[in-house]
Write a structure and sequence with these properties.
By secondary structure, this protein is an alpha/beta fold. The protein contains 15 helices and 20 strands.
């Protein structure tokens, strides 16, 4: 037998080791896969980075260039006034002087209407080699592209007037500053017309036109600059980015995996703790009174779940209620609370009054008659009457089977058990649940009550909810009442059943028993009775 147990232990240990190895392999594969995916982003990342960098480097220059193009019509109009348009020695001298003094102008030429031509650069090719880029930079000025034997293409501007034509060839300032900035002839800037992209002015290696443009920039209405880069430049940046992106992907994958494991361990740990808490009867009911302010009597109370862990005190509801609702552990917790509440309430002569105890349930519980029957079986062993029980269902969690829920609610109502809609107006169904489930009682959520005394829009929503409940003849309970002002406002609106810290906070059975001694309850018979410990 000992040998058999040892073999089983060894087998379990081997199985656990194999599982651990598989998990490690899967984890490594996940991290490697994400890292590779990130590294594949090196190409678009390099493109984006180069676009940003080149655009940032050229932005100021392009802005300056755009401004100069906008100023060209005024400049050419002013320059035209300096000439007689007869190509006389005076005109020739003026051409040479202007070009010498203005660094933006490379050369100038005049074409008088009576014939002839003169230029500041005698060996320049004829203007017949000019190609139109923008026909109307202004009514008198057009923009052209000229082929230059030494420097490729140049921009030229033409002014046309009654005396003749003035042509100005511009220095290629912007493009020259970009093409060799990152490596030799790595950047090609091409200025084109949007309406006529076949005519282009460029600086750089014309062979780069075979590549896709890295980005486009509009500098004037009808003109745009296309920027091309050498593939080797992109490849260099891509190679530089590959390893950092790979490492970033690996780090993010490892971090995500760690967070997932922490979450899973916490979920598993919380699940196990709840199971242990159920086995040890650690879940206890707290009670918050509901008061009828019209008679200053106790209408009843709401039973609230609390988790009392030995040595750690009371666990706040929001730390476990959302989880147990999802895990389904809310069902045995509710049964444990009902069993304890029934026993405790019997000590207060609850059955001798008309007071109601409200029990919170989730939609899942109202969608199964079998589940509700288990809860009702716990109530059957007490003296508490069915009409003293109410189930509160929150609309913050969605119903999945309204037909079944409606049937279950009708079964409960036939036994005298009421169903109230909790947190009315804050969740999925809104007031459609009231109609579809034939609910006759609702609880007004604290978020609306909080706005009493303010100008918040939700105050008008509160008034609308109250008006709706009043017109439908529904029982209304306001929860979260914390001040006298709120209580008086609600009472003035006809909402007499109120719950909140103004009357009493959620309390243990012992504290609730003392609370009951100080307030008169509504009798079941003709005589008054108080809830006694």
């Amino acid at each position: 037998m000992v040998f058999g147990k040892r073999n089983n232990a060894l087998g379990d240990k081997t199985s656990n080791q194999n599982m651990s190895v598989r998990q490690n392999i899967l984890s490594f594969g996940f991290i490697l896969g994400i890292a590779i995916l990130f590294s594949l982003l090196s190409n678009p990342t390099a493109q984006y980075y180069l676009s940003y960098r080149i655009n940032a480097d050229s932005n100021e220059l392009l802005g300056t260039y755009s401004m100069r193009l906008e100023q060209l019509p005024g400049l050419l109009t002013t320059l035209s006034q300096e000439f007689e348009f007869d190509c006389s020695p005076a005109d020739q001298a003026q051409l040479n002087t202007i070009v010498y003094r203005n660094f933006v102008i490379k050369r100038m030429s005049l074409s008088p209407h009576h014939g002839g031509e003169c230029s500041s650069y005698q060996s320049a090719q004829a203007d017949s080699h000019l190609m139109p880029l923008l026909s109307h930079l202004s009514p008198e000025v057009s923009l052209w592209v000229a082929n230059d034997a030494e420097q490729g293409t140049l921009l030229a501007a033409k002014w046309q007037g009654a005396q003749g034509q003035l042509t100005v060839h511009l220095e290629p300032l912007v493009s020259e500053s970009l093409k060799n900035k990152y490596c030799q002839d790595c950047v090609l800037s091409v200025l084109t017309s949007v309406s006529n992209p076949t005519v282009a002015y460029w600086r750089g290696d014309i062979g780069l036109l075979d590549e896709e443009p890295l980005f486009r920039t509009t500098i004037l209405d009808g003109l745009q600059v296309n920027t091309f880069i050498r593939p080797q430049l992109l490849a260099a940046y891509q190679a530089d980015l590959w390893l950092p992106l790979f490492m970033l992907g690996a780090i993010m994958a490892a971090l995500s995996l760690s967070l997932y494991r922490v979450y899973k361990r916490r979920s598993i740990s919380l699940h196990a703790l709840v199971e242990r808490g159920l086995a040890r009867q650690e879940f206890i009911p707290y009670y918050q009174p509901i008061v009828d302010v019209s008679t200053n009597s106790l209408y009843g109370c709401e039973m609230l779940a609390r988790w009392l862990r030995p040595g750690q005190g009371v666990v706040p509801p929001m730390e476990f209620i959302p989880y147990v609702e999802k895990s389904g552990q809310i069902l045995p917790i509710t049964e444990q609370l009902i069993e304890k509440a029934v026993g405790e309430m019997s000590k207060l002569n609850w059955q001798m009054t008309k007071q109601v105890i409200s029990i919170n349930v989730v939609p899942d519980q109202l969608e199964s008659l079998e589940i509700m029957e288990k809860s009702l079986a716990l109530l059957a062993h007490s003296d508490i009457m069915p009409e003293q029980i109410a189930f509160e269902v929150t609309e913050r969690k969605q119903f999945t089977n309204l037909t079944m829920a409606s049937d279950v609610i009708e079964q409960l109502r036939s036994r005298g058990i009421d169903v109230k809609l909790d947190d009315a107006g804050t969740g999925y169904g809104g007031f459609s649940y009231i109609q579809q489930l034939n609910i006759r009682s609702l609880k007004i959520d604290k978020m609306f009550v909080d706005n009493i005394g303010t100008k918040d829009l939700k105050l008008s929503l509160l008034d609308s909810i109250i008006a709706f409940g009043r017109e439908a003849g529904m029982e209304m309970i306001a929860e979260g009442v914390e001040t006298e002002e709120q209580s008086r406002y609600l009472a003035a609106q006809g909402v007499y059943l109120q719950q909140g810290y103004y009357f009493g906070k959620p309390m243990t059975f012992k504290d609730f028993a003392f609370f009951c001694k100080g307030i008169t309850s509504s009798p079941r018979e003709e005589k008054l009775a108080t809830c006694l410990a």
